Amino acid sequence: MAIENFLNALLYFAVSAALMLAMVRFFFWVTPYNDAEEIHKGNAAVGITLFSQMVGLGIILWSAISHNDTLAETIVWGIFGSLLMMGSYLIFEWLTPKLPVREELRKGNMAVAWIVAGIFITLGLVVAACIS
């Protein structure tokens, strides 16, 4: 029984890590700059944004794991929740045309980075509640 629980935990962890990496990759794809390059250059604004995105995704995955009985349900709700968070963020950007978020992040604007961090973490919490 203990070995089965251990293996089950490893499986859920592996699937969650893969999902998080896929969503981070998606985020890299939608930004008009090279995230890895910006972070390598020390752009803290991009780093904070990535950090908060991972926190938001982690909250969503925690909810998906905690509130579902099977790995398949966890995957479905994890993907749905992650897409919902990312879509909501993109809608925020679309609704705020006077604030060129991506360009400001590329320039290292820390005020925008903290706003984006708040959005990602808040969306993670709200989406987690919605999928639980």
TrEMBL record:
It holds the Pfam family DUF350. Its main location: membrane. GO terms for cellular component: plasma membrane. The lineage of its organism: Bacteria, Bacillati, Bacillota, Clostridia, Eubacteriales. PANTHER family: UPF0719 INNER MEMBRANE PROTEIN YJFL (PTHR40043:SF1). This is DUF350 domain-containing protein. It comes from Heliobacterium mobile. Coiled coil: none annotated. The chain crosses the membrane at residues 9-30, 42-62, 74-92, 112-131. It comes from the Bacteria. InterPro entries: DUF350. The keyword Membrane applies. Keywords: Cell membrane, Membrane, Transmembrane, Transmembrane helix. Belongs to the UPF0719 family. It is found in: Cell membrane. It is a multi-pass membrane protein.
